[in-house]
Structures are given as structure tokens and as C-alpha cells.
Specification:
- The chain is mainly alpha-helical.
- It folds into two domains: 9-54, no CATH class; 70-169, Alpha-Beta Plaits (2-Layer Sandwich), CATH 3.30.70.
- It has helices at 9-14, 18-32, 37-54, 70-93, 113-125, 151-169, and strands spanning 102-107, 129-134, 140-145.
- It has a three-stranded antiparallel beta sheet with strand order 1-3-2, covered by helices on one side.
């Protein structure tokens, strides 16, 4: 039985994706909308260099599960944004001594980076909270809270209202 011959390692190293290279050249020529040798050479240079960097990126493709919860999640998010705007306005107008800002680490039950990104976006979109960091192991989100009264209640609310449905959307 003959074993297939692998493509040259040297070619793969210097030209990792011929389709990407060709696509970049075509898009460059369409963007400059002028056919000239200089533009073609520069587009070719871009087409050779960009894939070299793109292959070093750690790509993780989205796994999508059930989308049935998306409309409900959008409604919950919009409602939370309205309520949070009212709460933040009340706190800003009121005495400063009543504010209790703080940071919490939210333990994550999901490991899909796309779901984590959506969760971080939802948290940041809601006034009064902002996602500050993701731990190296992707197990915790650091969240700054404008008015932190009960960390455990906030964690429970985020996990129930956002993370649980996102786990179904991004398994």
C-alpha cells in the first residue's frame, strides 16, 4: 500500500492558504478600483503576508445549538437595559455615599468562547455593569458593578437570566 505524498512543508509554510491569498488580491484590486501593476503587486504582497499571520491565530468556530431562546433573551436584555438605566439615573442623582461600586468574579459554566463573548457583551450593554476581564482558563469573568449590594444575588441573576440560555444557544 502506497502512502500519499504530503505537500511540501516549505510551500505550506510560506503560502499557507492559496484561496485566502487569491481572495485578498481580488479584494484589494476591487477596493482600489484601478488596474495598475503597482496595485497588483501591492495586493499580491498583502495576499502573501496576511495569510502568514492569519495561520497563527487560534480559530475557534462557533457551535450553534437551539435558537429558540433568542427572542426571549433579546426581550430580557432590553428590559434589563431599561431598568438599569433608571437605577443608574437614580443613583447618580442621589447622594454619592449610597453608591457601593465593586468587582466580582463570575464563575462560568460554559466554555464556548462565542457564548462567553455574548455574555460579556450582555453584561456590558446593561448600564451599571461592565465586563473587565476573562480569566486565562476561561472559567471566570471579572465584572465591575456600579452599585454592588449582594454579589451572590447578582451572580445568580446573571447566570439565570443570561448564561443559562446562552449555554443552550452556544453548547
Amino acid at each position: 500500500m502506497n502512502t500519499p505524498v504530503k505537500p511540501s512543508g516549505m510551500l505550506n509554510r510560506w503560502l499557507p492558504s492559496i484561496p485566502l491569498t487569491i481572495t485578498i488580491i481580488i479584494f484589494w484590486m476591487l477596493m482600489v478600483s484601478e488596474l495598475s501593476l503597482a496595485h497588483l503587486l501591492f495586493g499580491t504582497l498583502l495576499g502573501l503576508v496576511i495569510p502568514l499571520f492569519a495561520t497563527r491565530l487560534d480559530r475557534e468556530f462557533a457551535r450553534i445549538g437551539s435558537l429558540r431562546l433568542v427572542p426571549k433573551m433579546i426581550g430580557v436584555l432590553l428590559w434589563d437595559i431599561v431598568l438599569s438605566n433608571i437605577e443608574v439615573a437614580r443613583r447618580v442623582i442621589g447622594p454619592e455615599r449610597h453608591l457601593t461600586p465593586g468587582f466580582i468574579w463570575l464563575p462560568l459554566d460554559m466554555d464556548n468562547i462565542h457564548g462567553i463573548a455574548a455574555l460579556a457583551s450582555f453584561i456590558t450593554l446593561t448600564p451599571g455593569t461592565v465586563t473587565a476581564a476573562l480569566s486565562e482558563d476561561r472559567k471566570y469573568l471579572l465584572i465591575h458593578v456600579f452599585n454592588l449590594k449582594d454579589a451572590d444575588a447578582l451572580i445568580d441573576s446573571i447566570k439565570r437570566r443570561y448564561e443559562a440560555p446562552l449555554k443552550e444557544i452556544f453548547p
